[in-house]
Amino acid sequence: MKFVRFQQGAATRYGVLEGENIRIVEGDIFGQWAMGNQVVKPESVKLLAPCAPSKAVCIGLNYHGHAKEMKSELPKQPLMFLKPSSALTHPGGEVEYPAISQNLHFEAELAIVIGKEARKVPAAAARDYILGYTCANDVTARDIQKGDGQWTRGKSFDTFLPLGPCIATDVDPADIDIKLFLNGEVKQASNTGDLIFKVEELVAFASQVMTLYPGDVILTGTPAGVGPMQVGDTVAVELSGIGRLENTIVKG
């Protein structure tokens, strides 16, 4: 099943993709819901990020290939940081290149979407707390990140959290092909089988520290091949079984 969130007139609604159509969902996909009778065409509505997280928990240096690329030792535990909800960006939306940065980077990632409140969850039970998975781009002002010596400012500008296009519930997170295209050229290509810390470990690790709420996301890390973007570029994250998340870079 693939859930989408969209704006129809003044209303924000959820639906399920059915071929070329969206079947509107009645209720809350993070609570009680049922399939409705109304069907709409995607082109007749505005597609939104598939969830509105209170926070994005992000994991750094979590692919073997990326660690090798960065000439870094493998982390002994997940390297965790946060992005604020104000960084959220929708599919097809614009990512702003901050005026105070001169080195804006893409980072294609698999995002875990939390389905119900999770606190101190054991890894063995983690799947019970996951609604599904979506595409993410951990947009990063690399020069600010390196200059600060910590990651909050360089990762947290408005528009630095593109998510979408849907929440896929029936994919195997251990075997998802992940690609990033910059102006149509492949820049990152890997598979989640290369993750150092797996999905279940990440949910357990994060939930020992903070309560995860329905709709929160965990960005699982980026593979090798990260690099710069420029104003006017089109960047797309593509995950097998989930879809394609495309955004454009504009002057901030």
From TrEMBL:
It is an enzyme of class 3 (hydrolase). One of its GO terms (molecular function) is hydrolase activity. SUPFAM superfamilies: FAH. Its EC number is 3.7.-.-. Residues 55-250 form the Fumarylacetoacetase-like C-terminal domain. Signal peptide: none annotated. Keywords: Hydrolase, Metal-binding. Belongs to the FAH family. This is Fumarylacetoacetate hydrolase family protein. It comes from Anaeroselena agilis.
